[in-house]
Design goal:
The protein is an alpha/beta fold. The protein has two domains: about 10-60; about 65-240, Pectate Lyase C-like. It has two helices and 23 strands. The strands form three sheets. Strands 1-4-7-10-13-16-19-22 form an eight-stranded parallel β-sheet, with no helix packed on it. The protein is elongated.
C-alpha cells in the first residue's frame, strides 16, 4: 500500500528549511573560530566544560554588550579591546594588562560604565582609553595606571563619576583632538604630571576634585575650558608639560 503523500505545505516548509540551512552553512563555519576562542577563555577562567557549553544557550547578550568579565593577567598581554559603535561595556574587572590598554574602545555612542581597572598600562598604554564621539563613561574606577588612568579623545564625550587614584602621567586625560567634553562629579588624585590634563577645546568640568598632581593638579592647555564647583590647588598652562602621544 502506497503511503499518503505529505501535504504540499509540509513539503514546501521542509524544502525551505533545508535551502536556508544550506545558504547559512558558509556563515556558520566562520563562527567556529570564535566559538573555540570563547570556549578556551571560559575554561581558562575556571568554568567547567559543561558550563562553557551551556553558557551560549542560557546567557543572552547582544553582540555589542560586554558585561561582568574578570580579566586578570599574570603575563604581558592585552586587556579588552573593542572596535565599533554602540558598545555597552559594564562591570568588567581588569587587572594587570601590562603591555596594552586595560580597556580600549575605538568607536562612538558607547556606554562604558562601572568598570574597575588596576595595575594596568605598562609599556606606554592606559587603563581605560576611548577614541570616538558621544561616548558616555560613568562610574569607572582606576587604581594604579602606569600611564593615563582614563584617556578620552573625540567629540562630545562625557565622563561622569570617575574615581582615579595614581597614574604615571595623567589620571584623566582629554586628548588634543577632542572638543566639547564634559566631566561631572569626577575625583582624581596622584597623577605624576597632573591629575587632570585638558588638551582639547571647549571642555566643561563640573563638581570635580583633582588633587595631588606631580607638576600641577590641573594642566589646562585647552581653549574655552569651563570650571564649575571644581576643587584643585594648582593649575598650569605650560605646554612643556603636555603628555606626549
Amino acid at each position: 500500500m502506497t503511503p499518503p503523500a505529505a501535504p504540499a505545505s509540509a513539503t514546501s516548509a521542509r524544502a525551505e528549511f533545508l535551502a536556508g540551512a544550506r545558504l547559512s552553512l558558509g556563515a556558520t563555519l566562520s563562527y567556529l573560530p570564535f566559538g573555540v576562542v570563547c570556549g578556551v577563555a571560559a575554561i581558562q577562567a575556571g568554568m567547567s566544560e559543561a558550563a562553557a557549553l551551556a553558557m551560549p544557550a542560557l546567557v543572552f547578550g547582544g553582540s555589542s554588550q560586554v558585561l561582568r568579565n574578570e580579566l586578570t593577567h599574570g603575563t604581558r598581554c592585552a586587556g579588552l579591546a573593542l572596535v565599533g559603535d554602540g558598545y555597552e561595556i559594564r562591570e568588567n574587572v581588569l587587572h594587570g594588562a601590562d603591555c596594552q590598554d586595560g580597556l580600549t574602545l575605538i568607536g562612538s555612542d558607547g556606554v562604558i560604565a562601572d568598570n574597575h581597572a588596576d595595575q594596568t598600562g605598562a609599556g606606554g598604554a592606559n587603563a581605560i582609553a576611548v577614541v570616538g564621539d558621544r561616548n558616555s563613561l560613568t562610574g569607572n574606577v582606576v587604581r594604579g595606571a602606569l600611564r593615563d588612568g582614563i584617556s578620552v579623545t573625540g567629540d562630545a564625550n562625557e565622563v561622569i563619576g570617575a574615581d582615579v587614584r595614581g597614574a604615571g602621567r595623567c589620571c584623566v586625560n582629554v586628548g588634543d583632538q577632542s572638543s566639547a567634553t564634559t566631566l561631572t562629579d569626577c575625583t582624581a588624585a596622584g597623577g605624576r604630571v597632573a591629575s587632570l590634563c585638558l588638551l582639547g577645546t571647549g571642555a566643561v568640568v563640573t563638581r570635580g576634585s583633582f588633587t595631588g598632581g606631580g607638576r600641577a593638579d590641573v594642566l589646562d592647555l585647552a581653549a574655552g575650558t569651563q570650571f564649575d564647583a571644581t576643587v584643585f590647588d594648582t593649575k598650569s598652562t605650560d605646554p612643556a608639560l603636555a603628555p606626549k602621544p
